[in-house]
Design goal:
With 270 residues, this protein is α+β, with helices and mostly antiparallel strands. The chain contains ten helices and four strands. Strands 3-2-1-4 form a four-stranded mixed β-sheet.
Length: 270
């Protein structure tokens, strides 16, 4: 297996925020064009151009969410997290997949300070089931889709109800023979984020707090499970610095994933 190359270590910092809640107990959308930092604004137009190049007349809406949309993005740490809403029945092909890859590379080359580009695709009918997603996103182009407000409750959980599948993904990854450095890096980051976010989701109703930002998720978990704080901090450190070996991923992620799986079952029994 390839040995990871040395990179500058990113230190854990208390960054990110919790959702505000209004007087009726509904989440307040934190995304705002006024909040987006100037350094990140040029990416918005380029992403819209990419959507039109990739999907043409099928584009209904283009959205952004996450730290960029909240004005809390940090260079070399934050992803550009966006999604497009397309007409029902849009076509997808191998040629289109190649264009999508090309556009990701183009944007990464144009904006090397971005940690990564996460793009989602939703159909016009499918987005109607994504109330939480829309209630934390900013419409950049097209139709601003109206959706009911989202109340603060354990129903906000995206990872915890199905965490068993994420745990299986981790086990499968750990059984892979000689995965590439990029493969390890991508899996470590994705799986680690799932552990951190689930760590908060199992505590939404106890804590009365909700966030998708990683440090706030770690912070709440550490408050309620102080005996597990060092292990969860190690997971956060690994997500920020995922250029590690498969064995290091096993040592850090597996124990916490097993613990989170058991705790999530207590709250989200099917």
């Amino acid at each position: 297996m390839e040995q990871p190359q040395q990179e500058k270590h990113i230190e854990i910092q208390p960054m990110g925020s919790f959702f505000e809640v209004d007087s009726e107990g509904f989440l307040v959308n934190p995304a705002s064009m006024d909040e987006i930092q100037e350094t990140w604004k040029p990416i918005l137009d380029e992403y819209i151009k990419s959507c039109h190049k990739m999907y043409g007349k099928d584009v209904i809406s283009v959205y952004i969410r996450g730290s960029v949309a909240k004005g809390q993005a940090i260079e070399a740490v934050s992803d550009f997290d966006a999604f497009v809403v397309l007409k029902d029945g849009y076509g997808h092909s191998n040629v289109l997949e190649e264009i999508e890859i090309e556009e990701r590379i183009r944007l990464q080359n144009m904006f090397p300070f971005v940690n990564g580009f996460e793009f989602g695709i939703f159909s016009e009918s499918g987005i109607q089931e994504e109330g939480l997603l829309l209630n934390q996103s900013l419409c950049l182009f097209g139709k601003n889709i109206e959706i009911s407000k989202t109340r603060l409750s354990k129903d906000l959980a995206l990872h915890a109800p199905d965490f068993e599948n994420r745990h299986k993904n981790l086990l499968n990854f750990l059984e892979e023979e000689n995965p590439s450095r990029d493969r390890v890096r991508n899996r470590v980051e994705w799986l680690g984020k799932g552990i951190l976010r689930t760590g908060l989701e199992i505590l939404i109703e106890k804590s009365g707090k909700y966030s998708r930002d990683l440090y706030p998720c770690y912070e709440v978990f550490a408050e309620y499970y102080p005996e597990k704080e060092p292990q969860m901090r190690a997971v956060l450190d690994l997500v920020l610095n995922p250029n590690v070996t498969q064995q290091r991923a096993r040592e850090t992620l597996l124990p916490m994933s097993e613990f989170i799986l058991q705790e999530s079952k207590k709250v989200y029994q099917k």
